[in-house]
Amino acid sequence: MEAPFELLLDRLGAAPAAIVTDTFVPGAVRVGNRRGVPVCILSALGATMFSVQYRFDRLPTAARGSADMADVTDPCLMENYIPGLKSIRLTDLEPTHSDKIRLDKILEAYPYVRKAQCVIFTSFYELESNAIDFLRQELPCPVFAVGPCIPFMSLQENQADSEEEQGYKTWLDTQPASSVLYVSLGSFLSVSSAQLDEIAIGLAQSKVRFLWVLRDACSRVQDLIRGGDGVVVPWCDQLKVLCHPSSVGSSPTAA
Fold first, then answer.
1. How many CA atoms lie within 13 Å of 226's alpha carbon, on the beta-carbon side?
2. Residue 150 within any structural domain of the chain
3. Domain total in the chain
4. What is the mean pLDDT of residues 154-176?
5. Torsions phi, psi of 15, nearest 5?
6. At what angle do helices 2-12 and 26-35 cross, to 10 degrees?
7. By CB count within 10 A, which of 51, 153, 160, 241 is most buried?
8. Does the keyword Transferase apply (predicted)?
9. Are residues 45 and 171 part of one domain?
10. pLDDT digits over 170-218, tens only?
11. Are residues 15 and 136 part of one domain?
12. SS3 assignment, position 21
């Protein structure tokens, strides 16, 4: 991808003031270094997971994917290997790091982090202070936590809600301020039917108001949450929901 990127830069005429790139596009760092253009890495990961992947070499061999992941039964916290990670266990890495393709991408990308001119997280320092402090000590470049990068300006445009939006929007409008939990499993996470049922029953029994976006099995889950204080929809405008006055937060997998 470096050659097309360099061709694009050549067509700009004047050199860019900086290049903003994702962690997993190390070619952009190489191009910036060759051309003397500052490179800023804008991480799609939180600082905590970023610090895990950045210091993957400190983990036991099995946790790095060099042995059978079944051997990673160490209940110890990651803090034994990487400072600042107080709540993550080695066994928590298995779903993400047992995939060799992902491992190879991690091991290829993170050495180039040290060659960037800054790293930016869309997180809060107060939320991930331990991980951010660790990275500020480890990296030779500045580390910034700038908070969520939500395109709020688009919400200020007077756009009429679609027919699909009007149903859940009307429901949100009738809920108390800061009372609704937004639930989404995201685009990459898949769960079994039994796990899905467990989530549905847990939400229904929690008595917490919630808006759950679920593309598949929507009608079946509707039956499971009957009597609960929430609704299930196959799609929503996530930005509008999260910025609605009735929303109080989102599930950890909402992204």
1. 5
2. no
3. 2
4. 76
5. -70, 140
6. 50
7. 51
8. yes
9. no
10. 999 999 999 999 998 766 567 788 888 888 889 988 889 999 998 876 7
11. yes
12. strand
